[in-house]
Write a structure and sequence with these properties.
mainly alpha; Endonuclease Iii, domain 2; Endonuclease III, domain 1; 2 domains; two-stranded antiparallel ribbon; 12 helices; elongated
Length: about 210
């Protein structure tokens, strides 16, 4: 278990090299759709599929009315596109029918949406509403275990452990910093430990 000082040093080390993204004009609906598209695909495919979808259909009403076959074509690069297209259309219609077209701003209601688990709900809270939460994706789960912030087998347990040790004021930045860290330095197949700003606190390196 990391000490409070070590946890602080890790967050500060990431803060020193990364800027927080996506907070200029948060759109909870776009965040929700993007996170659905992100499931089981690479970050660059998620971005391409999101941009493709919203370049044609601009808002929730247009997406809810769109033929599912057209949505499939636009998001095909994200993989599992038939499942995701059906899910996007279903969620959009539920939001219109049950939530006046607005994305819920709380975990309880977000989890009532089909296909929305804790990671997706936490992403919406952080990136859509700027609410403190810890979305645990593959980057966060992998890096947290490498560093020794936790010793867990699944993202749900990782979230639970991180909530215990990460100060709440840092929750909102943690996912984005670790995603950038996982994309640029601590890559799954090429960990660049020689340039890592937090290597002194990494349990993986000490092994």
């Amino acid at each position: 278990m990391k000490s409070k000082d070590e946890v602080k040093a890790i967050v500060e080390g990431l803060d020193a090299i990364y800027d927080l993204r996506f907070f200029e004009n948060p759109d909870p609906y776009r965040v929700l759709i993007r996170t659905i598209l992100s499931q089981r695909t690479r970050d660059e495919n998620t971005d391409r599929a999101t941009d493709s979808l919203f370049s044609v259909y601009k808002n929730i009403n247009e997406i809810a009315d769109a033929p599912v076959e057209e949505i499939e074509k636009l998001i095909k690069c994200a993989g599992f596109y038939r499942v995701k297209a059906a899910r996007i259309k279903e969620v959009s219609n539920i939001l219109l029918d049950q939530f006046d077209g607005e994305v819920p701003d709380n975990m309880k209601e977000l989890l009532t949406l089909p296909g929305v688990g804790r990671k997706t709900a936490n992403c919406v809270l952080v990136y859509g509403f700027k609410e403190p939460a810890i979305p645990v994706d593959t980057h966060v789960h992998r890096i947290s275990n490498l560093l020794g912030l936790c010793d867990t087998k699944n993202p749900e347990d990782t979230e639970e452990e991180l909530i215990k040790i990460i100060p709440k004021e840092d929750w909102i930045v943690l996912n984005d910093y670790m995603v950038q860290f996982g994309q640029t330095i601590c890559k799954p197949n090429h960990m660049q430990c020689e340039i890592c700003p937090i290597v002194d606190y990494c349990d993986h390196v000490k092994q």
